[in-house]
Write a structure and sequence with these properties.
Elements lengths: L5 H11 L11 H11 L12 E9 L2 E9 L8 E7 L13 H10 L3 E5 L11 H15 L1 H4 L1 E11 L1 H14 L8 E5 L11 H4 L8 H11 L26 E8 L3 H13 L4 E10 L11 H20 L1
Parallel strand pairs: 3-4, 3-5, 5-6, 6-7, 7-8
Antiparallel strand pairs: 1-2, 2-4
Amino acid sequence: MEKLDESARRVLAMTSGSNDRPFETGTPQEARIDYNTAYPTLQGAREAVASVEDRGIVGPNGPITLRIYRGVGAPLKHGPGLIYLHGGGWVIGNLESHDEICRWFANIGKCTVICPDYRLAPEHKFPVGVNDCAAALAFAVQFAADIGIDPTRIAVAGDSAGGNLAAVLALMSRRGEAAPIAAQLLIYPNTDATQVADSYYRYAEGFGLTAATMRWFRDHYVRTTADITNWRVSPLRAETLLAGVAPAFVATAGHDILVDEGMAYAKRLREEGVPMVHRHWPGQIHGFVSMGRYVAEARRAVEAAVAAWHSFEASSR
């Protein structure tokens, strides 16, 4: 087993000493309260951006709030756009919990970031969240001129369950089921809901996100067990859909129950000829990009994602 970074050890020591109950021992509502109380202690200072605006749109399942960030130095017209999909196991997370990451992407990428407050499970099971994210992408394309972006320069990004949703959107785009995208930036993505990878056993407990919690998240998200192997839940299970998908950046953390499936997805993208960059942080844990107060690699991971995105743009010219 690779050595834990000191920053990861510090975070784990802090959280293991808390009195928080495991999410799976309570209700989704209790999990959201606990998560909303805990995440601010790990995040760093929120960077100033050029502007932040909330807008409402209507998707196939009802109204959705979007938060739109224009980064410092981002073009007012024809600039790059990024749909950012927050993590949280499809059950927790919101616009505030990932505000820090969205600001980093906006400033580092000199772009406009659009973050949808997609509906959460179990009140809204699969595929409602996917549909909300696709609606946000469709909005960005339709109103690109209004928000100052080039509709041909829109990428999707996300962490954990948000990385899952971003990967699914990329596959839907490849099939013509969602608007075209220019890149996918996946941060420790969940790509296989069967949860049979060896990393689920190596890091089942003691490294932040546990196997029991991940099972609880998944079981709230899916409608039936048949959904688990559906590629719109488990993109790694897609049979022949990866070739021709948008260029990809994949970030993985060494001490993460999702590391094996993240690496497997990166490997498969590469083998099927998709332009891709894989960055691995061997000493880090799941969720480290949301731990900017203590983990220097948090911002560096966003910098790496943006650098890969820019390299994909440069190679396509």
